[in-house]
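If you are new to this repository, start here. Below is one unmodified record pulled from the training split, so you can see the exact layout before writing a loader.
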Amino acid sequence: MAKTFKGIDVSQYQQGVDFKKVKASGVDFVIIRAGFGKYANQKDPYFEKNYKAAKAAGLKVGAYWYSYAATVVEAKAEAQTCINAIKGKTFEYPIYFDLEERSQFAKGRAFCNSLVKTFCNALEHAGYWAGLYISRSPLQQYISAYVAKRYALWVAEYGSRCNYGGTHGMWQYSSTGRVSGISGNVDMDISYVDYPAKIKAAGLNGFKKQAIRPTSKPTTSSTKKTVTYTVKRGDTLSGIARRYKTTVAKLVKNNGIKNPNIIYAGQKIKIK
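And here is the target side for that same chain:
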């Protein structure tokens, strides 16, 4: 079975958290509320404190932003306020757009899709790995499959299993968890993806891209090794071809790619 990671998420409603005790109890990561809405004064009053203390305790950290956007313009404003609140920090987990207001769902699927895409694309443009936090039922009703797949997905469904059939990176399974170092209830999460490794390798969320240096000069021998490249978010086939001084046509042929415009993160591309 693939490795999973144990997490919690916190906001101003959990005060005086002892993150060292949280870490010692076996928790790997914490997703911290950075704020809500579109105004700078809606930054979570405990965000800075929680971020510093969680990092000092050795926990991996992500963030979420609670949305009240009633229009796409407001979603864009929320994204900018979020970016301002989190800049200068590093996050090993994605930055999530928290969509749960009934008034938003009432406007239908196309509207909800547009909010998610507007916020998440703005975050990606600013160099962050963006995600969507949403409960299973509205996810299935109000978010199209292609949008759900496009960003890191964190599904909330309380119980012994998550009944969402699509791919998702994280599951929030309880709002009444108990963890050492926190008085009262706390949300409990499981991550199925090694986000810290992926985010650091991609050079996102405040991390510098890790340069891979050749250890020795390549020798011109007849036994040429096949180089394999793993597609990152935002890559294009033409960009990969440029990087490896080859052509799109060769990459398409060598990898049996049906549509050169469609490649996905995690896909392995053989470079001959």
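Two things worth knowing about this chain: The first helix runs from residue 19 to 24. Residues 131 and 152 are 4 Å apart (CA to CA).
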